[in-house]
Amino acid sequence: MADKDRVFIFDTTMRDGEQSPGASMSLEEKIQIARVFDELGIDIIEAGFPIASPGDFEAVSEVSKILKNSIPAGLSRASKKDIDACHEALKAAPRFRIHTFISTSPLHMKHKLNKTPEQVLDAIKESVTYARNFTDDVEWSCEDGTRTDMDYMCKTVELAINCGAKTINIPDTVGYTTPSEYIKIITTLKNKVPNIDNAILSVHCHNDLGLGVANSLAGVSAGARQVECTINGIGERAGNAALEEIVMAIRTRNDLMPYSTGIKTELLSKASKVVSNATFPVQFNKAIVGKNAFAHEAGIHQDGMLKNRETYEIMTPESVGVKKTSLVMGKHSGRHAFKEKLNDLGYADITDDVIQTAFGKFKILADKKKHVYDDDIMALVDDSLITDNQINAISLKSLKVFAGTGEPQKAEMTLDVYGKVKQATEIGDGPVDAIFKCIKVLYPHDVKLQLYQVHAVTEGTDAQATVSVRIEEKGKTTVGQAADTDTLVASANAYINALNKMIIKRDKTAPMEQENQKVRGI
Q1: What is the reported pTM?
Q2: Pair 515, 394: CB distance under 8 Å
Q3: pLDDT-derived band of residue 28, with 50, 70 and 90 as boundaries?
Q4: Partner of 463 for a Cys bridge, out of 48, 371, 458, 509, CB 3.0 to 4.6 A?
Q5: Residue 424, by phi and psi: left (phi above 0), alpha (psi -120 to 50) or beta?
Q6: Hey, what CATH class is 3-278 in?
Q7: Whether pLDDT at 298 is above 70
Q8: How far does CA 463 lie from the centroid of its chain?
């Protein structure tokens, strides 16, 4: 693409984004974020507001030293003291940007600055000229630009450019504008400011009306070539335009927005997680990087996705660094998606009758539970397999456990293994360990215990305990559950339940009689 179609990404996550209540970042977190942003391909990183605090000054200084590709920037008001702080914080970098601003709307000039329009023009001239002494990369912003008189804005922009500003930013500081109005503002500047071609126009949109991204893209379509934004859209009040949404909108709808950015989109998910870990969680339905952005639960959608992913996905999850699409199993899921989930879980060769039985149980469970996990589905299918095969290879006949202080923990167990009664006594590191050792002696096997969990069904010392056990063998897993007022009996039965399911999951093509002969010959 031609240079005129290159859109520069100016990230202000660590400055404007950090101003979100609860989003304060430590120096270590800012450095970690900066490294990821540098790798991501962000053009300019605004690392903070150096005059605001010693911590902000240090963060801007340290971030500016580690960046290899991105240009570090610091924010300053129209004040020599602020600009000096920016320069001091950034001067170790081989190149840097000073971003200075002042309000230009009648409301802000009167009530915030207590200055006349003429005094504001003087401040612009003084501040931009002063900043230009330290770097040729000076950006100037007219705060509350979208509520500024257009004729006056044209005067301020022309003045800032004449004083040496190379980037002119038009902020929608309070998220007030709309796409059509913003296009008009940018277009008017391009048509009426005589020296506008000597600077890059930039957009900086807040999201108070939910239009931050739409307004930013409208500004780009009108001729702006820098977008100021934040990862996850964090920022004051309702936040800023989200970087990941802007970049992926340009990439996905390049037919309507024939622009390019330098962002490596495959790192967007990683950047989102790093910022989220330092600030606050991302909403599940957040575009591009939310947990549900590539998740489908509705049966109609899942069926379409399985036939052709483009039916319900306009971009691939891999393009933003997500491993794969997720078919979320819930009460809206259909039989087609359920069968596909079973294939993913290793049940590729089970019969349609078993699938239908398990699907019926799944629908009942999904009506009761908000989240149906893979373990839930595996347990349903394993139970259906046992019913379908009428197999219960191992059953508990009796159990005695010796526990407490002064004596080793010991279990005495009797099992029915394929119709043959066997007994064993084992010592373990605790009563549960002794029980599981007995089972292993009576039915030799080699599985890995992945989960052992006890839940009390009711309150009180006589509560019934439900025990869950998950075991794994050669990549196959099964889940067993059992309930009893005796936790140790429940533990034994849960493990045996999981083991019975594993026996069925073993080579299903081998006749069951071979399994019987193998066990009897031990």
Answers
A1: 0.69
A2: no
A3: very high
A4: 458
A5: beta
A6: alpha beta
A7: no
A8: 39
